[in-house]
From TrEMBL:
PANTHER family: CATALASE, CATALASE-B. Decomposes hydrogen peroxide into water and oxygen; serves to protect cells from the toxic effects of hydrogen peroxide. There is a cross-link at H343-Y366 (3'-histidyl-3-tyrosine (His-Tyr)). This is Catalase. InterPro entries: Catalase (IPR018028), Catalase_AS (IPR024708), Catalase_clade2 (IPR024712), Catalase_clade2_helical (IPR043156), Catalase_core (IPR011614), Catalase_haem_BS (IPR002226), Catalase_immune_responsive (IPR010582), Catalase_large_C (IPR041399). The lineage of its organism: Bacteria, Pseudomonadati, Bacteroidota, Flavobacteriia, Flavobacteriales. The active site is at H79, N152. SMART domains: Catalase. Residues 1-48 are annotated as: Disordered. One of its GO terms (biological process) is hydrogen peroxide catabolic process. It comes from Flavobacterium panici. Belongs to the catalase family. HPII subfamily. Keywords: Heme, Hydrogen peroxide, Iron, Metal-binding, Oxidoreductase, Peroxidase. Heme binds at R76, R116, F165, R362, Y366, R373. Gene3D superfamilies: 1.20.1370.20, 3.40.50.880, Catalase core domain (2.40.180.10).
């Protein structure tokens, strides 16, 4: 089956053509059993008489129910909830100097990809808007085999060594006695663990920042996290860090908003991605790399092998080398998004690992987990997982084997099969691990170069704008406020104090306890890197004090586009049609979507008798599902004062720092029907109907995403 597409050179739709082999469509077809027997009655089971018992011989009922009984597979232990999409990657410029990976050498190849975004802690059915890291896993179907870049939207990790991963996940998931809470880190076991693991402090800063509550999966960065290697044709190695930069910029929602979205639409991110692709607004990211020569391995004041550290862009700039476009939704969630199996160990010649002890542990875990989740060593044969490169080996059999390997030879070396399949020399594309020299004692210890747990947490915190710093303090106050054990709160304050005294004091104030003077040594020998006490956490002086790239609001790559943003139009019968039309057209021209909200579905009639189609009612719509609000003019608009949801709509928009625009009679609604007492620069008004200047300034304002300055006024 697979052999048919093995010589395929045009990679761009290579994977889609491969999947075609398995796609099915029941259109204009008879309903059949799995054995192909046409079914005559799909409504009634076979019974002994009209009111009698069902008969065991009813093979149609038995087949249907048995299949149903076995429909579920174990959800992922972590990253259970996800959304997938197909697309392609194209290279801007060859990376030949650094890597021999074909898809990073040849700018004319478009490599098909499948991406799965996920939350980490929650179960499959949990909310999209949990405060959590997001998984960002990309499967490249290259002509030399599959390369999986299994990253996150945060560039560092909580722990340095794979040995601690099961502990971390046990701590963050619902507590084992009652499985509470779902998809939330705000509970005792998580913060107990964190408070005993100072190495987590850098990642804690990221997760308490707004990065953990993205506006959209399309508006978040992605990172490979670990340092990998590029290896070129001359067998020279460079260290490499991978970055994905979203074309729409990196944006977040407010925490209160996130909690409300979870109630209004817990599929908010999944739906947003689906609709964007469905309507042709294909999300796009650029791939960037930070390349570090081998000779610079020890140049920095952190260890490149330590996954709790990033390489500041100010020290090693990110070079943009290509772009990824997601242009097709999956046909079937289970077959594709659920069954896709990622593995950081899926690499191709030209890419290799480093000795990062977290990465090394992952290399074991991912095949193992697929065996239990997908149930067979043949998971590589599942359509979404199979390579579009030629694949031949002597692995045989196992549950659900699809391949029919012909011939009697299934071993190597052999003479009966002419030695086939044969090994590839390096210049024939054979994979050879980078021949790094290792000369060492076997030890169970960490390198002293891993013992600085605070410098980059400080760098991250100091690089944030005051608004972002406030959000971190608020998030910590929320999370630690939910912790019941006072000693855990105190230990956390001790750690926070090492990051920033002001931050610790703010959180302490909210918790109603003082920042402890000395951090108390936990009684269970859990202090970070080395339980043996060889390397106490130390603070190393950072060579840089600030990195704008770490702040979402200062990030130089931030985009001001309002493409795909959803703007709510609060309307009623008797609205002014020109007011609606002018703003709608202006927004649409800028790529945004105007959503007409009214007391009922169908159409409303404007002042001049125009029928305006309604998209949503006030019973369904909520401010948290939109990026901005416009209240048009028109005599009938005063009707909005009588609709209680309108008041909540405007107040939520205001409290979540969204931009609000109103025209003519619409202004009165803001004045009389909301808590907005003072005019602020984020509330834009005009007495003129269809005011071009208002439309332009509203669009410009929406490009800033939020008017965070308002928080100081609230
Ligand atoms: Fe994973 N991780 N992980 N992880 N991870 C899984 O594999 C694991 C880590 C990441 O959409 C599991 O197929 C260990 C870092 C993503 O299908 C499992 C360690 C990063 C996804 C697993 C880590 C990740 C996973 C669960 C520490 C960012 C979802 C299901 C040694 C670079 C992929 C599965 C998808 C999934 C193990 C740490 C990212 C159990 C042991 C660091 C995006 O194998």
């Amino acid at each position: 089956m697979k052999n048919s597409k093995k010589t395929n050179q045009d990679n761009s739709d290579g994977k889609q053509r491969d999947l075609d082999l398995n796609r099915s469509n029941g259109e204009n077809q008879f309903l059949t059993t799995n054995q192909g027997v046409k079914i005559n009655d799909n409504n009634n089971s076979l019974k002994a008489g009209e009111r009698g018992p069902s008969l065991l011989e009813d093979f149609i009922l038995r087949e249907k129910i048995t299949h149903f009984d076995h429909e579920r597979i174990p959800e992922r232990i972590v990253h259970a909830r996800g959304s997938g999409a197909h697309g392609y990657f194209e290279l801007y410029k060859t990376m030949e100097k650094y890597t021999k990976a074909g898809f990073l050498n040849n700018t004319s190849i478009k490599t098909p990809v499948f991406v799965r975004f996920s939350t980490v802690a929650g179960s499959r059915g949990s909310t999209d808007l949990a405060r959590d890291v997001r998984g960002f896993a990309v499967k490249f179907y290259t002509q030399e085999g599959i390369f999986d870049l299994v990253g996150n939207n945060v560039p560092v990790f909580f722990i340095q060594d794979a040995m601690k991963f099961p502990d971390l996940i046990h701590a963050v998931k619902g507590e084992p006695h009652n499985e509470i809470p779902q998809a939330a880190s705000a509970h005792d076991t998580f913060w107990d663990f964190i408070s005993l693991m100072p190495e987590s402090m850098h990642m804690v800063m990221w997760v308490m920042s707004d990065r953990a509550i993205p506006r959209s999966l399309r508006m978040m960065e992605g990172f490979g996290v670990h340092t990998f290697r590029f290896v070129n044709a001359q067998n020279e190695s460079h260290f490499v860090k991978f970055h994905w930069k979203p074309k729409l910029g990196t944006h977040a929602v407010a925490w209160d908003e996130a909690q409300k979205i979870s109630g209004k639409n817990s599929d908010f991110h999944k739906l947003d991605l689906w609709e964007a692709i469905d309507t042709g607004n294909f999300p796009e990211w650029e791939l960037g790399v930070q390349i570090i020569p081998e000779s610079d391995e020890h140049k920095y004041d952190f260890d490149l092998l330590d996954p709790t550290k990033l390489v500041p862009e100010e020290l090693v700039p990110v070079t943009i080398i290509g772009r990824m476009v997601l242009d097709k939704n999956p046909d079937n969630f289970f077959a594709e998004t659920e069954q896709v199996a990622f593995h950081p160990g899926h690499i191709v010649p030209g890419i290799d690992f480093t000795n990062d002890p977290l990465l090394q542990g992952r290399l074991f875990s991912y095949t193992d987990t697929q065996l239990s989740r997908l149930g067979s060593p043949n998971f590589h044969e599942i359509p979404i997982n199979r390579t579009i490169a030629p694949m031949h080996n002597n692995q045989r059999d196992g549950h659900m084997r699809q391949e029919i390997a012909v011939g009697k030879v299934s071993y190597h070396p052999n003479s009966l099969g002419g030695g086939c399949p044969f090994q590839a020399k390096i210049d024939e594309g054979g994979f050879a691990s980078f021949n790094e020299r290792i000369d060492a004692h076997k030890i169970r210890e960490r390198s002293e170069s891993f013992s600085d747990h605070f410098s980059q947490a400080v760098l991250f915190y100091n690089s944030q704008t005051p608004v972002e710093q406030d959000h971190i303090a608020n998030a910590l106050s929320f999370e630690l406020g939910k912790v019941e054990t006072v000693a855990i709160r105190e230990r956390m304050l001790g750690l926070l104090n090492q990051v920033d005294g002001n931050l610790a004091s703010k959180v302490a104030k909210s918790l109603g306890i003082p920042v402890p003077k000395n951090i108390e040594k936990p009684i269970n020998h859990g202090v970070g890197a080395d339980d043996k006490g060889n390397h106490e956490p130390t603070k190393v002086k950072q060579s840089i004090k600030n990195s704008d790239a770490l702040s979402m609001l200062k990030n130089p790559t931030i985009s001001n586009t309002i493409a795909t943003r959803q703007i709510a139009f609060l309307c009623a019968e008797g609205v002014n049609a020109s007011s609606v039309k002018a703003m709608k057209t202006a927004l649409q021209n800028a790529g945004a979507k105007a959503v007409i909200i009214a007391p009922h579905l169908g159409t409303i009639t404007s002042e001049d008798g125009t029928a305006i189609p309604v998209d949503q009612t006030y019973k369904i719509a909520a401010s948290v599902l939109f990026d901005g609000v416009f209240i048009p003019g028109g005599k009938g608009i005063k009707e909005l004062s009588r609709i209680k949801e309108v008041k909540e709509f405007i107040n939520d928009s205001y409290n979540h720092c969204k931009f609000i625009a109103a025209e003519a009679e619409g202004i009165q609604i803001i004045k009389t029907n909301s808590d907005i007492k003072e005019k602020d620069a984020g509330v834009l008004i005009s007495n003129t109907i269809a005011d071009k200047a208002l439309n332009t300034s509203f669009i410009k304002a929406l490009g800033r995403h939020r008017f965070w300055e308002r928080e100081k006024m609230l």
